[in-house]
Amino acid sequence: MPACLHCGELAPEGALFCAKCGFTLPQVDASVPPPPPPPPLRSASAAGSPGGAAAPPPPPPPPTPGRPATAWAAPPAAPASVAYPIPAPVLGTGPIPAPPSGKYCVRCRTIISRSAVYCPVCQQPQTTA
Fold it and tell me: What are the per-10-residue average pLDDT scores of the chain (129 residues)?
């Protein structure tokens, strides 16, 4: 049985969509065999090292002159003389226009008819004020 990748719901064989959330289910081609399992990991003693002990890790490289020895040091600061360009304003932008006149739904703010009793989008009853 395939499982939905979106919600985890189990779906019957041959289903194209999840019955719970509507997400498209992964389709598996029956003619293609599944991939073989990965080989098991070998322990350090079974890896063929002499004496059954793992070799010690190599020593860390020597520190580079002029750089701090810690790996988590902050990057060098940019010189104060560097001037960064200021982007030009985008043409066509300006104040936000006023919303269209009319009646708005109290729940979803959709423009609706002044005589509407229910919102056609969210079905919320409208007040008569």
Answer: 85 86 78 77 56 71 68 64 73 69 82 84 80
User: What distance in Å separates the CA atoms of residue 44 and residue 53, rounded to the nearest whole number?
Assistant: 7
Q: Is 67 left (phi over 0), alpha (psi -120 to 50) or beta?
A: beta
| Unique residue bearing structure tokens 């070998």 | 42
The position carrying tokens 């090292």 is 49
Q: Compute the distance between CA of residue 26 and CA of residue 4 in angstroms, rounded to an integer.
A: 8
Q: How many Cα atoms sit within 13 Å of 35 on the Cβ side?
A: 3
15: tokens are: 């289903």
pTM score? 0.24
